[in-house]
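Field reference: "sequence" (input) and "structure" (output). Example, L-asparaginase:
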Amino acid sequence: MKKILLIHTGGTFGMVPVEPDQTLAPARVQNHIINMVPEISRLAEIDVLTPFNKDSSNVGIEEWDLLSQLIYEHWDRYDGFVIIHGTDTMTYTASALSFSLRNLNKPVILTGSQRPLSQYRSDARLNLIDAVELSTMDLREVLIVFNQRIFRGNRTKKISVKSYHAFESPNFPPLGEIGVTIDIDHSRLLQSEGPVFHLPGFYPQAVVLTIQPSMSPGYFYSLFDQNIKALLLLGFGSGNLPFPEPDWLSFIKAAMKRDIPVFIGTQSIQGRVDLSLYECGRQALEAGAQSIGQMTVEAAYVKLLKILKLTSHPDAIVRMFNENWAGEI
């Protein structure tokens, strides 16, 4: 029987009603998960760890490093890893783990739920059973398993706060679906290309700005005095930014003069950023801005934080960003 490490980090999955107002609070369920979902014990030998118990909105670079270090330290002792995580920032954590744990030769799977395990009609039980079963298989990447679908973690976005279909992979097909059988598209799976290694650390000096019509860049020039090392601007459509009024082109040029590389994404959920399509994008491209292509904003942001831990040289930042590290491109 395969041996799986189940890591509980908090989130809706383990919440329980608290009297008298029935608000939800994290419960200490780590010692009770197997009793609550006994099916997983028939799928694998399960150990449970709880490195922290937090709402996922409070999970960031410290927790990403803690999780990657914990998994790496236990790598040789287990056949797979399942992380119970809040849904709000699950895609950020999945991206972070995919950039920190490289050349995987076994699965690291994140899951959670939209309703707590303690409530009727909860999706928690099935999500956990699916994640544990998949963690016993020959899968070599960081995945999100949710609502009977299998996603590459760093290609995934949360799309709903109320539907059990909470996640989607807008620019990359799901890796599989879970029904009567588990159907996996093995042609799309990552393959390890060398020994597993751990690349810890993130440097939170990248800023994401969502551009709105008529919003002046003048509000943001002060960012240049805050020691930021990279900018990610979310434009319209294929990456278009308004100019000459408001003049975001001058803002990009000012950043570049300060050796701050500028990356451009889109507020559209689906499709790639192509700065060559329209004049608004071409001007930004000619000024030195970089497209994030089909990457999700979550993956692009986390990748920049990882890169900034490794280098502050603008050319190196751009070169590393455009490298495909873990199937995010």
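The mean pLDDT is 92.
The chain has two domains: 3-198, 206-321.
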